[in-house]
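REQUEST ID: PR-0412
SUBMITTED BY: lab tech R.K.
PRIORITY: routine
TASK: structure prediction, single protein chain
INPUT:
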Amino acid sequence: MTRPGRFLRTITIIGVVGAAAAMPARAEPAHGIAMHGAPKYAADFTHLDYANPDAPKGGTLRLAAVGSYDSFNRFVLKGRAAAGVNMIYETLLQRVWDEPFAMYGLIAETVETPDDRSWVEFTLREQAHFSDGSPITVDDVIFSWEKMSTEARPRSRSTYQKVARAEQTGPNRVKFIFKDATDRELPLIIGGFMPILSKAYWEGRDFTETTLEPPVSSGPYLIDKFDAGRSISYRRDPNYWGGDIPVNVGHHNFDEIKYTYFRDQGVALEAFKAGDYDYRFEGSASRWAQQYDFPARQQGNVTMEIVTHGAPSGLRALVLNNRRPLFADRRVRQALTQAFDFEWTNTNLLHGGYVRTTSLFDNSEMKPRGAPAGAELALLEPWRDQLPAEVFGEPYAPPVTDGSGNDRRPLREASKLLEEAGWSVEKGRRVNGAGEPFTFEIMLSDTANEKLALAYQRSLKRLGIDASVRVVDSAQYAGLLEDFDYDMIVARRGVTLSPGDEQYNYWSSASATAPGSRNYAGITNPALDAMIDTLVAAKTREELVTAARALDRILMWGNYVVPLYHDPGFRIARWNKIARPAEAPIYGAVLETFWAEE
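STATUS: complete
OUTPUT:
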């Protein structure tokens, strides 16, 4: 699950590089930029609505991490970066969490881009400086882009290589000219996600290597003390230049932030209950229901809450590898969807803690409503002969059982679909016309999904389908994903309120054959490709919502995955010495706005 905030969230946007575009007339400098329409906050805003401008400064926030770390360089593939290390870097713009996708000035005082967004230009704040006191210059910004486009992680490189060139246009002005003006996200990506590095520090050092040397940085916190692989502490920089900038007011309230590493989530939970750290996000409904009844909570020293939000659910699913001939027939894929009993699973395995997912965009305005009409229907109509008839009817709805575990109705429908697809039952086994059995493997990397897979396996057995379940180690799993060598996996696709280029990597025909892509389902559907094109090119919020709904209909009614479930909100537990603003923005509680109670 995605959660907002510098502590909790990393966003990677991936796209394709096109042809060079002509440069139109100048735009007007502005204090912020939104993906669609105007930003919410006017130029004279003093703080964000979800931040407390009177939040006290001071105290320590203790957090947990699982596993280990061996580097402070989070920008390259080598090594494992320390938790929270992104706090030491700043960007040209700052994303806010009460708008779908908007950025406001941070290192950059202003941003300007033309209507076609073929370039973007930033004016740097004169007071912005690095932790060693040296000013942040245009040279540093261009150097940062060069490093990110040539030596960073492959997914980062593919994004920053969309820039044709970067040039200094004034003493504190820098312009990025794009190769392709069709990617309207690029001004926001360059502004809000590119870390600004110190050229003086990094020149002469190997950017592609791991390091445990605290670097010269630009953010509100500095690396203070660390025990490699076990803990790391950050202290608020008393000379940080950006504390009074409106997007930062009410943020970065703790003097110290400390991460302690634990072997696994079970050990980490016990440490939380013992008071060894202060704040915990709980991703498991089972743990939430069963393992939080401890003395400190009973005594009122710990607050537990489910923070609702307005962000899309994303899609957690059993993903069928549609590259396998076994899953080529949509009727087979429909049957496999019918065999998953969510109601029984939710009650008996998940403590009733989840909501069934029916859309990639559940919990948002992008979820389809009724039958397609107007502009949405116009997008779909050219593809009518190539799409299932259901696409043009009501939104996707998975089967619903009575929750008893013995509801035969969905299995009867599944059996009918399999018979139509040429899979009959002989001696209790589902076989095709050549007598070959219907068998496949569910591959897992997380034992937490094993009970779910075994329950699904039992349901499939009643259809005569033999599905084995195998848990593999993380290294082997990553290699098999890279090569698309699996039948079925459990995967999740997170989305924001402003989906864009990443959808190509998830669902497009081109990504289906690209090694290492995240199109795990292997979908090749030209109609879906067209919807992604329309989504990415959208110039208004209305156009984006329309394209998202059309995309969702094709994806869900294609039955490429068996949709599972999502959380009704973010489960958070905190010791009461940690406080947060009363209202959370649409993306959920933002940890940077928390503070220490006396």
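NOTES: The longest strand covers residues 163-170.
REVIEWED BY: pending
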